[in-house]
Amino acid sequence: MTLANQYKSYRGLPPLAGLCSMQRATQPNWSLDDSVTRLKRLHYVLRRVHEMMVARIPSEPVYELKMAYSHHSYLCAEQVDMIRRRVGEMREPPLGLDKVPDDALQLTLTEIDGAPNTIQFLIGIYSVIIPECVAACQRLGQQAHPLADAPTVRVAKLMVFELTELCQYGDAAVECLTDDPQDPKLIAWRSHLNACLEVAGMIDGSQPSTGDFPQSWHVKKETIYDKQPQRDERFRDPYNAGVNPESFLYNPEFSARDKTLMMYYKRLREIDVPEMMASIIVELRTEEPWDFHMEMCRQLWDEARHAMMGEVGFVAQGIDWTEIPINFTWSHNLNTQLNPRERHGVLFFIEQGLMPKTGKRYEWEVATESGDPLSALFQDFDWADEVLHAQIGRRWYVPRYDSLKEAMAYGDACWSRVLSQWQEYRDQGLTEHENWWPRLYTTACKNWGTTPDPAALAFCETYQDKRADLEQL
Questions:
Q1: Beta strands in 367-406 (DSSP E)
Q2: Does domain 245-457 correspond to CATH entry 2.30.29?
Q3: CB 3.0-4.6 Å disulfide test: which of 254, 271, 347, 372 passes with 307?
Q4: How far apart are CA 67 and CA 43, in angstroms?
């Protein structure tokens, strides 16, 4: 029996800060290069998954998937960021993190990126790639030296925790959206992707390659994305701009309780911010450093959370939100009329405009006064998020200009150039710009057991001549 087996700590306390047994610590079968190699491969895969999810946000019509891609792309970005920091700690400048670590890995991810439909994409990401990332992290956590490489082991454990949640969501999504789980084509697709990974020696390269890469199913040389926002069938009349909620919100004649309905609408309508921001992130992929994409993806996810706050708010009020036209012309018009730098300018101008007392603080005060504690909770965190977003803009947008004033002026000018096409959409038969507010307000008052305020019920201001910040078009 070796000394390691007989080693006794003080009064039997767990040795080595609880990292492992003394016997395990004496085993030297690991190296710094082993950790770096595996982390770089995980970095490449998770960054590609992050990019693929972001690119699908605008054109994915299903609201729940749009929100899931917003969340999971952010979580993958967090994993990527954690890996980058760890690799940078291990004698690796220059890091070489932008290099493709394995051609077979690249081809596997390109196959998934080229998936022609949602269910194949979901299977590729959630049934193949993410579970294999979990397995690779588990191997890394078990095989890396628990004392010498404790920081890497910690990174691996944290990644397993979050990525397992992605697997659980993906399993449920695939089950919900697959008409026939035994569809031979879907089974063959999954087998094909697993065979591709086997050629790469799996995600972490820990297994021997099986030989030549299989014949491609979906030949695709580069990411091509559709920035035209799409919505599922529950989003009726998406071109409708027949109600200007900001005009109602800032009108002192109306009650805080009534204004809460408009704030829930404004939150849910923020679906269009991830749709627009995704186009900025995708189109500036090679023009901005990773830190830009990391912070912009965080903001994108926050905006998706805000949309879901609106969804939850209407449910809590007993209101079917699918009966309300959720307008998407902001993301549609910005994505189709402006370039990514101009879109970023508009985004910053709006975010910065929410910082004075008439912005997010005002919305929180209205929510607090309304007597609706859920609205007060949501607006409290919405306000905090927007302060963060303004700071992100000051870090990444403002330095391109000589001053904050110039940066703001550019964003304002870009927004002013966006054509609302209010009349054109009507003339084309895309919408009648119905005033949906009286119906929503009447339903809410019925749920509250109160009589509608005649002045509030008569509200009928539109977006025909005003922007969301109430500036004239």
A1: none
A2: no
A3: 271
A4: 23
Residue 55 structure tokens:
């690119």
Hey, do 30-199 and 245-457 end up sharing a CATH topology, with the first three levels equal?
A: no
CA 276, CA 340: separation in Å to the nearest integer?
9
Query: How far is residue 204's CA from residue 101's CA, in Å, rounded to a whole number?
Result: 10
Q: Is the pTM of this model over 0.85?
A: yes
The residue ranges of every structural domain in the chain are 30-199, 245-457
Spatial CB neighbours of 397, under 8 Å, sequence gap ≥ 6 = 344, 345, 347, 348, 407
Structure tokens at 51: 């990019």
300: its two tokens: 């994108």
Which pLDDT score is estimated for 24? 93
Residue 3 has a pLDDT of: 77
Give pLDDT, residue 2. 73
Tokens 């490449």, residue located: 44
The answer to whether the beta carbons of residues 310 and 265 sit under 8 Å apart is yes
Architecture of domain 30-199: Up-down Bundle (1.20)
**Distance between CA atoms of residues 285 and 398, nearest Å:** 19
| pLDDT score, position 355 | 74
Dist CA 214 CA 6 (whole Å): 52
- Point out which residues pair with 472 in neighbouring strands: 466
In angstroms, the CA 89 to CA 95 distance is 10
Is there a contact between 96 and 88 (Cβ–Cβ < 8 Å)? no
* Tally of CB atoms within 10 A around 72: 24
Q: Which of 298, 255, 263 is nearest to 448 (CA)?
A: 255
Tokens of 440: 């929503």
**What DSSP assignment string belongs to 108-152?**
HHHHHHT-SSHHHHHIIIIIIIHHHHHHHHHHHHHHS-TTTTHHH
Local structure of residue 93 (DSSP, 8 states)? S
Q: CA 118 to CA 108: how far, in whole Å?
A: 17
Quote the tokens at residue 353.
Answer: 């405009």
Mean pLDDT per 10-residue segment, the chain (473 residues)? 79 92 92 95 97 96 97 98 94 82 93 93 97 97 96 97 96 93 92 95 93 83 77 95 94 96 96 97 95 97 98 97 95 95 95 80 95 96 94 95 95 90 92 96 97 96 79 63
Q: Cα separations (Å) of 357 from 5, 124, 354, 363, 376?
A: 66, 47, 8, 9, 16
DSSP structure class, residue 466: B
DSSP codes, 237-251: STT-----HHHHHT-
Alpha-carbon torsion (365, 370, 376, 378), positive or negative = negative
Contact call for residues 374 and 312 (beta carbons, < 8 A): yes
What DSSP character marks residue 472? B
